[in-house]
Amino acid sequence: MADCAPTPNASDKMASLLKEAENLKIKLEEERAKLNDINLWTVAERLEPIAFVNIKPRKVLKGHQAKVLCTDWSPDKRHIISSSQDGRLIIWDAFTTNKEHFITMPTTWIMACAYSPSGNFVACGGLDNKVTVYPITSDDEMAAKKRTVGTHTSYMSCCIYPNSDQQILTGSGDSTCALWDVESGQLLQSFHGHSGDVMAIDLAPNETGNTFVSGSCDRMAFIWDMRSGHVVQSFEGHQSDVNTVKFHPSGDAIATGSDDSSCRLFDMRADREVAVFAKESIIFGINSVDFSVSGRLLFAGYNDYTVNLWDTLKSERICLLYGHENKVSCVQVSPDGTALSTGSWDYTIRVWA
Amino acid sequence: MDVMSSSLQQQRIVVDQLRREASIARQPVTESCAQMIKYITEHEQEDYLLTGFSSQKVNPFREKSSCTVL
């Protein structure tokens, strides 16, 4: 490209680009501030408080021999897959607590696992930098029929099937996200923009599956257009790593959780932060968040072994779920909203309902 | 590419990104709040973790037997 060649005025160009970037940032701040006409919790004051939440521990799933790092509910609303530092995946029947399948991987620290939309495949990976797909069949065949779909240049922290069993979206410690074709292993799109490890991704619930959000150790959350590979919106505010991101069920907001011991709610149409979920007494980081099906409750798993329930609208903590004996690494509401699963460094998964 | 032109390239990407973000349409927070409250209110009845089950019998995760250890 001619205009990339070093020229005497390259430094002028650089100066003008830096100047423009500076002005655009100021303009963005002004525009966002202009529309900040009220607080969510002020509007929510007139609403009835959440009186009583009757969520009890129902099941404890024991079987992993090391930290549970990730879990995912099956689309059948009954099975859970979990991945662990012990290098194993386990498929559980959450109703009976039976272990139905074991998969041993040639790696430890399986940081991510995800069911395909059909429920017939699982994708997983971690410190091996790869995303691998297993069909769910009898145990012997599962290992034999595995397929390596994609490889990052650092650990794979998160994976998700965006539309069908044919594609997988991954996030990585190499600061990128990537969309892979399962059949061919082809890289369909890569997503560059973060300047730190990508820790979490989530899909927009209500669209055609072309928007996703990512959270990163660069303290940012980005909204991406999957087709163009561009960042559509970016949200800042956290003072430390963003470990988890989740779309509100309405599709119009995202929740984030961070090592700075706060969760935040960013509204996409207002293009700004609209709530902070934090307390003086909470000094531990958050590893995972999820919403109840209406989006009124925000569940957050903390490093202090607790799960906190927040009222999304009033920004108040409603209660804590005690039970885990180590960091809570993952929380997820079941697809029909009847239960919450929590995974922990105490080697167990618990189901609350 | 030498260092200068590659950092120019990088800076162009940053500026393009900011231009895109600056050009998006925004709505006041009041409207966002109203929409979020509306969505939640409309879906509260389907939210078992929030409102509970009409009867514990329909909770698929309840203990099956009444003789559970407390």
Automatic annotation (TrEMBL), chain A:
Taking the record's annotation, the residue ranges forming a coiled coil are: 11-38
Q: Cite the Gene3D superfamilies for this sequence.
A: YVTN repeat-like/Quinoprotein amine dehydrogenase
What UniProt keywords apply to this chain's record, in alphabetical order?
A: Coiled coil, Repeat, Transducer, WD repeat
Whereabouts are the WD repeats? 61-93, 149-190, 191-234, 235-276, 286-311, 321-353
Q: Which SUPFAM superfamilies match?
A: WD40 repeat-like
Biological processes, Gene Ontology terms:
signal transduction
Q: Which Pfam families match?
A: WD40_Gbeta
For this chain, the family text in UniProt reads: Belongs to the WD repeat G protein beta family.
* Identification of the protein by name: Guanine nucleotide-binding protein subunit beta-5
State the organism of origin. Bactrocera dorsalis (Oriental fruit fly)
Taxonomic placement: Eukaryota, Metazoa, Ecdysozoa, Arthropoda, Hexapoda
Gene that this sequence comes from? GBB5
Automatic annotation (TrEMBL), chain B:
Matching InterPro entries, A to Z? G-protein_gamma, G-protein_gamma-like_dom, GGL_sf
Q: What is this protein called?
A: Guanine nucleotide-binding protein subunit gamma-1
Q: Which protein family is named in the record?
A: Belongs to the G protein gamma family.
**Keywords in alphabetical order:** Cell membrane, Lipoprotein, Membrane, Methylation, Prenylation, Transducer
Compartment(s) of residence: Cell membrane
Its predominant location is membrane
CC annotations in GO: heterotrimeric G-protein complex
- What Pfam families does the entry give? G-gamma
| G protein gamma domain location | 4-70
